[in-house]
Design goal:
The protein has 534 residues and is an alpha/beta fold. 35% of the residues lie in helices and 17% in strands. The strands form five sheets. Strands 1, 2, 6, 7, 8, 9 and 16 form a seven-stranded mixed sheet that branches. A four-stranded mixed sheet has the order 17-15-10-20, with helices on one face. A four-stranded antiparallel sheet has the order 11-14-13-12, covered by helices on one side. α5 crosses α12 and α10 crosses α11. The chain starts with 5 loop residues before the first strand and ends in a 7-residue tail after the last strand. 53% of the residues are buried. The site of succinic acid has 8 residues, from α8.
């Protein structure tokens, strides 16, 4: 059966998180006809769940040099200093844009900036703008309102991008992108989108791990699609584990913001001992890799299910004012954080690596851009500094828009339609759910906070078996959202393990017992489907 529909746009954006919506609105404002393709609802994205806030130097006492230095220290030698400087210097413009969109950051009338600035691990200064403890929801809600009312933007919810369409499909150059095949989940059919430019804004891959702070959409689709298309993918071994995810049987993926530690939260063992003093002089405000490893060490040493984060010594009023969302969520689960410590564990949180881009978001495939968590610009190095990622979505988003508008308009091409004449109905959904589970457990067990060569080998062995099985399934059965995601997830898992195996040192978020020291050589791990470049 062939599907007959082709939609044409100046630019197609895959993803409706901060990167996707910012790009859509900025392009639409400048006259482009844009499609936003998103696999669930517009709001279902990591950006919506962002708590702590967005880092920006807006206080006169603070400085770009200090923000730069904090980012470089957290990134442990692997940040691209040009990228860091560019993104940090453009932060005030990004904040102004959000304010112009109607985002109301928490204010502090006593401060010279007018805003309440909070602090997080690795930051030497209070520089995080926030909307209480639900910054992402406040930002995304405003941007969705603007998106839905914009005449130049077409929104395709419940549409999942399957694969990019390259020139070789139309007898042309394979390193040019002409659009994307998209599966309409409700109507069970594939549509072809032809576009002058394609922007991947598909977010990270937290769901590759059993425990994650990420919502279900975070399956690394953009990274997998780009890799299949021939893009370079960089530094995927650096998966950030957030130190403090709520530990409770009924709380799926609920984050306890780093701002809780920024405002004085103390990490304790069940007996009340403040263990961070044994690990780092910066205590609870050491960068995330350090704190997550310390928690992992203490949990393994004492055989604990969790550790505790205690902010209960602050007043009830302070807690309810600063952390209303966390306070209410914990209360609904029977934990009164104003009077008792919060049980927490580390969980996969952020994908520091991604599709390699320059500072205009360009990948190595023409007319294909990547923005936000799915991209690797060089900002985060081997460990992202808290609250730098929302900033990156905006600054690179603005740069992509300039690049798109400053080049001649690309011709919209007639593209071949998706052919599913060879596939039959899927009769064993259980295979998909079983493989999902197996993959995520293997990644958690073997490719987590502490790694060894043996564990990586074991993980790769299982992943390859799963990969073959899933590819065979994909080739023979009709599409579903779960199958598309699983195909991507297993490829991303393979890329993570391959990248981790290539790094013979411990640096930032990649800690290997076989190579416990940091090497003198500073090197990104860059791989693509043609060759391993590292
Ligand atoms: P996302 O916001 O994840 O959006 C990805 C979009 O792509 C989604 O709409 C998804 O549905 C869509 N998509 C994916 N694949 C497909 C496909 N195949 N087809 C169609 N659509 C697809 N960072 C900060 O800077 N500050 C914070 O305070 C902060 N707090 C966080 C709290 C939590 C709980 C989490 C999980 C992350 C937090 N982060 C924070 C990180 C930050 O939220 C993300 O890095 C950032 O939001 C990524 O934005 P994005 O637009 O790249 O991706
Ligand atoms: C948090 O609020 O702890 C998340 C901040 C981030 O991931 O940048």
């Amino acid at each position: 059966m062939k599907n007959a529909k082709q939609l044409n746009f100046d630019t197609v954006i895959i993803g409706s998180g901060l990167a996707g919506l910012a790009n859509a609105l900025l392009l639409a404002e400048r006259g482009q006809k844009v499609a936003v393709v998103t696999k669930k609802t517009l709001a279902e994205c990591n950006s919506y769940y962002a708590q702590g806030g967005i880092a920006a130097v807006i206080d006169k006492e603070d400085s770009v040099e200090d923000h730069l230095s904090d980012t470089l220290i957290a990134g442990c030698g692997l940040c691209d200093e040009n990228a860091v400087r560019y993104i940090i210097e453009h932060a005030p413009i990004a904040i102004e844009w959000l304010v112009s969109m109607g985002v109301k950051f928490t204010e502090n009338i006593e401060s010279s900036t007018g805003f309440h600035l909070t602090r997080e691990g690795g930051h030497s200064f209070r520089r995080i703008l926030h909307v209480a403890d639900a910054t992402g929801a406040a930002i995304i809600t405003k941007l969705i309102q603007k998106t839905l009312s914009h005449p130049n933007i077409v929104v395709l919810e419940n549409h999942v991008a399957i694969d990019l369409i390259l020139g070789d499909k139309i007898g042309g150059e394979s390193n040019k992108c002409y659009g994307v095949y998209v599966f309409d989940v409700n109507l069970n059919k594939v549509i072809t989108i032809s576009a002058g430019n394609t922007i991947l804004a598909t977010g990270g891959a937290g769901k590759v791990y059993l425990y994650t702070t990420n919502p279900d959409i975070a399956t690394g689709d953009g990274i997998a699609m780009a890799y299949r298309a021939g893009c370079n993918v960089a530094n995927m071994e650096f998966i950030q584990f957030h130190p403090t995810c709520l530990f409770h049987p009924n709380a799926k993926s609920f984050l306890i913001s780093e701002a809780v530690r920024g405002e004085g939260g103390i990490l304790k063992l069940p007996n009340g001992y403040r263990f961070m003093q044994d690990h780092d002089e910066r205590l609870e405000l050491a960068p995330r890799d350090v704190v997550a490893r310390a928690i992992d060490y203490e949990m393994k040493k004492h055989g604990l299910d969790c550790v505790y984060l205690d902010i209960s010594y602050k007043s009830q009023q302070f807690i309810e004012e600063h952390f209303p969302n966390i306070y209410q969520k914990c209360k609904s689960l029977g934990i009164d954080i104003a009077h008792e410590p919060i049980p927490v564990v580390p969980a996969a949180h952020y994908t520091c690596g991604g599709v390699e881009t320059d500072l205009s978001g360009r990948t190595n495939i023409l007319n294909l851009y990547a923005s936000g968590e799915c991209a690797h610009t060089g900002l985060h190095g081997s460990n992202r500094l808290a609250s730098n990622s929302l900033l990156e979505c905006l600054v690179i988003g603005q740069a992509i828009v300039e690049d798109v508008l400053n080049k001649p308009k690309n011709k919209i091409m007639e593209l071949p339609q998706w052919d599913e004449s060879q596939v039959t109905d899927n009769d064993e959904e259980v295979v998909i759910s079983h493989n999902w589970d197996e993959l995520r457990r293997a990644m958690w067990g073997y490719v987590g906070i502490v790694r060894t060569n043996k564990r990586l080998e074991r993980a790769m062995h299982r992943i390859k078996l799963l990969h073959d099985e899933i590819n065979e399934y994909y080739a023979n059965f009709k599409l579903s959202l779960n199958l598309i995601e699983l195909r991507n997830l297993v490829l991303v898992a393979e890329i993570i393990v391959k990248s981790a195996g290539l790094r013979h040192e411990s640096r930032g978020l990649h800690y290997s017992k076989d190579y416990p020291l940091m090497s003198d050589e500073i090197k990104n791990t860059i791989i693509n489907k043609y060759e391993v470049e590292s």
